[in-house]
Amino acid sequence: MKSLWFFDDVNLFKVLCPHKFKTYKVGHGFDAYKNKDYIYFEEDSANKVYLIEKGKVKIGYYSEEGDEIVKAILTRGELFGETAILGESVRKEFAQSIDNGTSICQIGVDTMHDLMRNNQTFSFKIYKVIGYKFKKLERRLQLLLLKDTKTRLLEFLHELCTDYGYDCDRTGDKIIHHPYTQKDIASLIGTSRSTLNILLNELKEENIIEFTRKEIRVHKNIA
């Protein structure tokens, strides 16, 4: 199983959080959040980068009509708020805990820049992960604007295969153990839970997938 931000077998939290470094360890702690707690809001100062020790975080913004647009749902080991590294001074999105046991490691931008200057290879990986994240977001926004809901769901299943899937057996099927609830998936593809449930059952009837709460088997004809 491979998560988006686990690259070259490196978990960013394990190698980056300041408590791992003697220089930054003193005085460093972890911030705890409950479900629906905000980590930052739109228009807040962008002076930190965040790593998830455990739990889940929703990244999004509100449209002019007040509708919530979900950009990403992130889990353990993942990085967010990274645009501060690139010079963004004000947040253009919100970050909200969607788990009762979310624990966050905060890193000041100056500390991050120091770490990146001192390790060129690590710096390259950070920029690589930021670029990949932007590319993924651009693709998701294109799907929301141009594709119907079923196509968005199929594309999301392909994405899950890449990020969390592994070969199950000789049938060629992919087994996906993922961290998302149906509510999460519905938010990410821009639909309601009821519509998502209908579409999942349609795909099951068409013998494209089988699914349980935390596992999806994607058959080889689309995997």
From TrEMBL:
Q: Which InterPro entries match?
A: cNMP-bd_dom (IPR000595), cNMP-bd_dom_sf (IPR018490), Env_Response_Regulators (IPR050397), HTH_CRP (IPR012318), RmlC-like_jellyroll (IPR014710), WH_DNA-bd_sf (IPR036390)
Top-rank lineage group of the source organism? Bacteria
Any GO MF annotation of the entry = DNA-binding transcription factor activity
Annotated keywords: DNA-binding, Transcription, Transcription regulation
Cyclic nucleotide-binding domain ranges (all copies): 33-91
Q: Name one GO cellular component term.
A: cytosol
The HTH crp-type domain sits at 147-222
What name goes with this protein? Transcriptional regulator
